[in-house]
Design brief:
The complex is a heterodimer of chains A (85) and B (403). By secondary structure, chain A is mainly α. Chain A has helices spanning 24-48, 58-76, and one strand at 4-9. Chain A has a domain at 25-76. The longest helix of chain A is centred in the middle third of the chain and has 25 residues, at 24-48. In chain A, 8% of the residues are buried. Chain B has one domain: Alkaline Phosphatase, subunit A (3-Layer(aba) Sandwich), CATH 3.40.720. In chain B, strand 1 and strand 2 form a beta hairpin. Classes of the chains: A mainly alpha (85), B alpha/beta (403). At the A-B interface, strand 1 and helix 1 of A face helix 5, strand 7, helix 8, strand 8 and strand 10 of B. Strand 1 (4-9) of chain A pairs parallel with strand 16 of chain B, so a sheet runs across the interface.
C-alpha cells in the first residue's frame, strides 16, 4: 500500500469550450498536417502515373506492388498498432 | 511534454513554503516574492500568487522569437553584451492585451496547493532547477530539439526539412533494432510533432489509450514520448474531452489529471515502475515570467537570419530559452532531489530539450548516432538515478476525480 495519497481535483464544470478560437499552435498544426497530406498525394500520384500495362518484368511489377502496398498499408494503419520488434 | 508554462509560474511558489520558521524547500530556485517587472507606465509589478487555472492568460501571451527577446532583454538594443534582465515580460504582454492591468497577469504564479500533482512529483522525486527551453521561441522549434536535438535552424512555427544525416531519436532506435513510440492523445488531437514522421514512420505512433494498455501489459517500447491532448473536443460517445496540454487558455487542472494518469499507469505495474524513468517537462515558457536568465550554450550547427528572427539581428543558437518545469521520476531517485541550476555557479547542471535525445542515444545506443554539436554537448540525466529502489510506502499515488 502507498502511504502518500494525493487527491487530484477535477477541472471546474464549464471548462470545456470547443468553440474557443483556435490559437496559433493549433492553426500551425493543421498547416503541418496539410503538408503531410500533400506528400501522401504526391506518393499516390507517382504510383498512379505508372501505366500497369507498361510493367514488363517481375522486377517492374514487384516494385510497383511494393509502392502501392506501402501506401495502402499506411493509409489503413491504425495508430494503436504495435511496432515491429 | 507539456505546453507553455514557466518554472516560476508552476513551481516558483515552492520557495515560499515555510515550515517551522524555515524554508521547506530551500534547494528550489524559485521565487522570493519580490521579483518584479516594469509595466508600460514604468510601475514595478511584483510576482503574485494569483495564477488561475483558466481565463487569466487570454489572449495567449506572446512566445514567438521577437516577443521572447523582449521578455529576456527588455528592449535592449541588439548587439554584444545585452543583459538578460528578464524584465520585459509585462511590457510584452501588454502588446497582446492592450490593457495595463491585464498585462500584470503575466507575473502570476501558482501556490503549491493549487497544483498537487506537479508539486508532489517535484518534491518527491528530482526537480531540475536549470532545465531551459532550447530556443527563446515558440513550440515547434523547441519540440524539434526534443526529437532531433536540433531545429535545423528554425526559430518559429514553420514546418521544417530534416537535414541528413540527423535522424529523430525514434528513427535512431528503430534503425538499431530497438523500439520507440510517440503516444499522442487521440486522432482529434493528433501529434504536435513532426509531420514528416507521421508520413515516414507511422509505426512509431500510438494513442494515450494504447499507452495505458501498454503499461498494464508491460509492452511499452524502450523509449516513449507522450503528448497531451491539445484541444477541447467531443469524445467517441459525445462526452467532453478537455485539452490537457496546459497551453493558455486551456485548463491547468486537466493537465494535472493527465500527468497523474501517466504516473499512475507506470506506477500501477511493478515491473514497468521498476524499469522506467519518467520525465515531465514543458516545451517552452509560453511568454510567462521566470526570473532566471537563460545561460549560454553550445551553438547549434546553424544560424537563423534577421528575417527569420524578426528582431533585426541573426540568432546563432548560442543561448537557451526561458526556464521550464522539469521533473524526473523513478523509484531509484531519492525523495527531494534537487538538480542544481545556474544558482550553483560552477556546480550548475544545465539541461535543455536536446538532453532528451542525447540521453536516449547514450543510454540505448551507446551514443552511436549522427548528432549535432548541440546535442553532443547536451547534459544527460540518467545518472541522477541511484542504486536503491524506494519502498512502496514512501511513494505518492494519485486518486483522480476528487474535489
Amino acid at each position: 500500500m502507498t502511504s502518500i495519497v494525493i487527491k487530484v481535483p477535477e477541472p471546474e464544470k464549464g471548462s470545456f469550450n470547443h468553440n474557443r478560437p483556435a490559437g496559433k499552435l493549433l492553426q500551425s498544426q493543421t498547416l503541418h498536417l496539410r503538408e503531410a497530406l500533400l506528400k501522401y498525394l504526391k506518393d499516390i500520384a507517382d504510383v498512379l502515373a505508372i501505366d500497369p500495362k507498361s510493367l514488363k518484368t517481375e522486377r517492374d511489377v514487384s516494385t510497383y506492388i511494393q509502392k502501392a502496398t506501402a501506401i495502402l498499408h499506411t493509409q489503413a494503419r491504425k495508430p494503436s498498432e504495435r511496432p515491429v520488434k | 511534454m507539456m505546453e507553455n508554462r514557466s518554472f516560476d509560474h508552476m513551481l516558483g511558489g515552492l520557495s515560499l513554503v515555510m515550515e517551522n520558521g524555515q524554508k521547506k524547500y530551500p534547494g528550489v530556485n524559485g521565487l522570493t516574492g519580490n521579483e518584479s517587472n516594469p509595466d508600460t507606465n514604468n510601475n514595478p509589478v511584483k510576482v503574485n500568487p494569483n495564477a488561475k487555472f483558466q481565463s487569466q492568460l487570454d489572449p495567449d501571451p506572446d512566445h514567438h522569437f521577437p516577443g521572447v527577446d523582449m521578455q529576456i532583454f527588455n528592449g535592449a538594443p541588439q548587439g554584444p553584451g545585452r543583459a538578460r534582465s528578464m524584465k520585459g515580460f509585462v511590457k510584452d504582454y501588454f502588446t497582446q492585451t492592450n490593457n495595463v492591468n491585464k498585462s500584470h497577469n503575466i507575473m502570476s504564479y501558482f501556490t503549491p496547493d493549487k497544483l498537487p500533482v506537479l508539486t508532489t512529483l517535484a518534491t518527491q522525486f528530482a526537480l531540475f532547477n536549470g532545465w531551459f527551453s532550447s530556443i527563446p521561441g515558440p513550440t515547434i522549434c523547441n519540440r524539434a530539439f526534443a526529437h532531433y536535438g536540433t531545429s535545423f535552424g528554425q526559430v518559429g512555427m514553420d514546418i521544417f526539412d530534416i537535414l541528413a544525416p540527423i535522424m529523430s531519436s525514434y528513427e535512431r532506435m528503430l534503425a538499431a533494432g530497438k523500439t520507440a513510440k510517440i503516444y499522442y492523445y487521440d486522432q482529434q488531437s493528433s501529434t504536435m510533432e513532426i509531420v514528416n514522421l507521421l508520413k515516414n514512420q507511422p509505426q512509431i505512433f500510438a494513442t494515450y489509450d494504447q499507452f495505458i494498455s501498454d503499461c498494464a501489459a508491460n509492452t511499452l517500447p524502450q523509449y516513449s514520448f507522450i503528448e497531451p491532448c491539445y484541444n477541447d473536443h467531443e469524445g467517441p460517445g459525445g462526452g467532453e474531452i478537455l485539452a490537457s496540454d496546459q497551453h493558455p487558455d486551456h485548463n491547468v487542472q486537466a493537465g494535472e489529471k493527465f500527468i497523474a494518469s501517466i504516473y499512475n499507469a507506470i506506477h500501477g505495474n511493478p515491473v514497468v515502475w521498476d524499469s522506467t524513468a519518467l520525465l515531465v517537462v514543458y516545451d517552452e515558457h509560453g511568454g510567462i515570467y521566470d526570473h532566471v536568465a537563460p545561460p549560454d550554450c553550445t551553438p547549434d550547427d546553424c544560424q537563423a537570419n534577421a528575417t527569420a528572427t524578426n528582431t533585426g539581428a541573426p540568432f546563432n543558437f548560442d543561448y537557451l530559452g526561458v526556464r521550464v518545469p522539469a521533473i524526473l521520476i523513478s523509484p531509484y531517485i531519492a525523495k527531494g532531489t534537487i538538480v542544481p541550476g545556474t544558482e550553483a555557479g560552477a556546480g550548475a547542471r544545465i539541461f535543455e530539450h536536446a538532453s532528451i535525445p542525447a540521453t536516449v542515444t547514450n543510454f540505448f545506443l551507446n551514443g552511436d548516432a549522427k548528432r549535432t554539436k548541440r546535442e553532443a554537448a547536451a547534459s544527460t540525466f540518467l545518472d541522477i538515478l541511484g542504486d536503491d529502489a524506494r519502498q512502496e510506502n514512501d511513494l505518492p499515488f494519485f486518486t483522480l476525480g476528487g474535489h
